[in-house]
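Dear support,

Our group has been running a series of protein-ligand predictions, and this particular one with adenosine-5'-diphosphate is the one our PI (initials K.S.) wants archived with full inputs and outputs. We had some confusion internally about which version of the output was final, so please treat the block below as the authoritative record. The input we submitted was:
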Amino acid sequence: MESSDYETPFVTIEREKWRKLRDRKKITITEDQLREIRGINENISMKEVKDIYAPLTRLLKVYYDNYRRLNRTRKAFLEMENERVPYIIGIAGSVAVGKSTTARIMKELISSWENSLNVYIVTTDGFLYPNEELKRRNIIERKGFPESYDLKSMIKFLYRIKSGVSHLKAPFYSHLKYDIVPEEEIEIVNPDIILFEGLNVLQSHSDRINDNFHDLMVSDFFDFSIYVDAEEETIKEWFIQRFLKLKETAFKDPNSYFRKYASIPDEDAIKIGLDIWERINGLNLRMNIERTKYHAQLILRKRENHDVNYIQLRKI
Ligand SMILES: Nc1ncnc2c1ncn2[C@@H]1O[C@H](COP(=O)(O)OP(=O)(O)O)[C@@H](O)[C@H]1O
Ligand SMILES: CC(C)(COP(=O)(O)O)[C@@H](O)C(=O)NCCC(=O)O
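Confirmed final output from the archive:
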């Protein structure tokens, strides 16, 4: 090939080709799994789960099996005990692009790989500074921006996981309360696989690195990583739709930080949502998130109806 425009370390697999992988590998999904996945979100298309997410998880199993095999062989070579060190998959992308939905579908599909495999989802919002601290630093309007996270704790958490610590706790952020809830930490026991999901997981933050952890980055601890991608206009629309839905559901809860929005007309809610998008989430996408896309091993590119249009995978 003459032109460097064609040179890329990624292969692009169009939807139609990807879909057919399912037949080749005879990938099956049980009725129980489909029921669980339907419970995540009534809008998820089961066809999409079968066509896209089942082959995706099947491919991940190839990587995971290799990881286990390499670990065993390496330990045998070094004549060391075969201790369990969890496999960590990073999931990155904008607010409202579908990271948490992707993580939840994958968790369900991965859990059936082997009996009693412990799969956990950890979201990086737990590592946001509490509102009080964000206010003290004058960055309460910058939730999700790199400076809003306690990076040291996040790195320390991943460091401990990869050290083989078998019982640990992850901090919890409540979207209802719009704040960290210290007494609701998430317990993680004997993890085999961690889906580590958040806006910032592929960022290099060498400018903010602390002394004890040298130049460690969150992604140094990943065995695989996925970037969920779509056009900004499309993501903004999903964000607004989710905001309107929350207005009819979670915002009605008397404990909700956003209860003041529960009773306003839709057109006002749309204006507020668009404003939040412009000032915070969209800005963050453009400034800090989108540029991390090609750090991922795999990019899931979605179109307007949430269907995956194509997948890009690192050549190796
Ligand atoms: N595959 C999908 N099919 C249908 N709706 C989806 C899908 N993925 C995400 N959504 C919807 O898009 C919105 C954003 O998804 P979510 O997973 O909450 O995003 P994030 O975790 O990136 O903020 C939600 O309203 C969710 O229900
Ligand atoms: C909590 C979030 C930063 C997402 O965090 P993540 O789990 O991706 O680290 C985001 O959903 C959010 O609330 N952004 C800020 C919008 C606002 O301040 O209203």
